[in-house]
Amino acid sequence: MSKIGIYYGSTTGNTQEVAEEIAKKLGVSNSDLFDVAKANADYSAYDVVLFGTSTLGFGDLQDDWESYIDKVKAANLEGKKIALFGCGDSSSYSDTFGDAVGKIYYVIKDKGAQIIGQVSTDGYTYDDSEAVVNSQFVGLLIDNDNEPDMTEERINNWVEVLKQAI
């Protein structure tokens, strides 16, 4: 299996929990799981890189991603497989659900990486999202605030999609 690195930003702990669960299901070591508040942007050791963020307020990147995104912009992602995931609130912020995941997507989409792990919008309730491209989410979106009962199934399904793409 390919070497996987997981990079996440988490304010409330939800995105960290999702990152840890994904890591466990993919067999990724804790040494390959990084909080972007303390991480560099050297992805040379990895064939596959997962980026995770929460969406804050009205579509904003998670605080640590605000500065880390510049590192991603400058990084070499050529030939990598990249998957995106994030947490959001589809009820209180239904017009900006998962927007931060979309913001990361638009930074990396033209950097020579293959973006994997797109997810159908079926079964989600929201009004708008920057994370929707070609009628599907660019990655996994989790709403632990309003749909915690769907989190495990969504993660399991996504991990299976990733395994096929890796």
TrEMBL record:
It comes from the Bacteria. Keywords: Electron transport, Flavoprotein, FMN, Nitrogen fixation, Transport. Its cofactor is FMN. GO terms for molecular function: electron transfer activity; FMN binding. Residues 4-163 form the Flavodoxin-like domain. InterPro entries: Flavdoxin-like, Flavodoxin, Flavodoxin/NO_synth, Flavodoxin_CS, Flavodoxin_lc, Flavoprotein-like_sf. The keyword Transport applies. Transmembrane segments: none annotated. Belongs to the flavodoxin family. Low-potential electron donor to a number of redox enzymes. This is Flavodoxin. The lineage of its organism: Bacteria, Pseudomonadati, Bacteroidota, Bacteroidia, Bacteroidales.
